[in-house]
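# step 3/5: fold
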Amino acid sequence: MPSNLPQAHANFLERVRNAVASDNRLRALLIGGSYIHGGLDEHSDLDFVIVVNDESYADVMATRLAFANALPDLVNAFTGEHVGEPRLLICLYGPPLLHIDLKFVLVSDLDQQIERRAILFAREPAEIEARIQAGEVAWPNHPSEWFETRAWIWLHYAATKLARGELYEAIGMLAFFREQVLGPLFYRRAGKNQRGVRRLEALGLDEHGRLAATMAENNPSSVQGAIEASIDIYMDLRSDDPPPQPTKAMPELLRDFIQNVISRSRVEPR
């Protein structure tokens, strides 16, 4: 256990460990995230993985909300389909408010991992540890072509919302673009796993503060500038590992589109 674990986190960890140990359907309790990578503080989530006996999995998945509710002070919880992870139960407890992830897996799921998690409890510790160590660990990093096939479509979408005057929608797309494209590419430039925009500031990955230019205010000129800044930053980051098939006529086609938008709507260029 990290020596600097906040007391609220330590107390909750012990509650989860006791709950898993007292439920014979469950084989082990693992933890990942900042608990194992460092940087855990009072604002951190706790990312638990609960290993379930094969024969009990259907029952546990059907009653997992009851499991979460049996832990003290559940505020609310929902499942993680929106992030492609239906096994995940995302919970808020408090006071004090704590974000807790509970993911329910089979022992066979440990054969493919995104990180080697720490064991907090196991009925057969040696078996679980061996499975964790033998499992393949790979962060779901995207190749250059993944970004290239999406970047221009997403940026064009933002530009069309600018053209319509749907500025909030354009601003939302720019935030999505930072999370899905620019942030991961800053991580790639630093030789790290692609983690969106998490801890970019603390790690100094955007050392010149260029991402700030992609954050638009609610006016057409600011949104235009943020889209153009996103284009410039993407082109620079793309050069680290150019895609095998760059998108035809980009970014020129998109820049022309933006200029036509400005001309039609008489938006003053920045």
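# step 4/5: annotate
The longest strand covers residues 85-93.
# step 5/5: archive (pending)
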